[in-house]
Amino acid sequence: MGLPDAMDADWNDSQPIYRQLRDRVVAMILDGVLKEGDPLPSVRNVAAENRVNPLTVLKAWQQLADEQLVEKRRGMGMYVKDSVRDVLLEAERRKFLETQWPEICRTIRRLELSPRELLAAAATGGAAPDKQGTI
Question: Per the confidence metrics, is the pTM higher than 0.85?
Answer without folding.
Answer: no
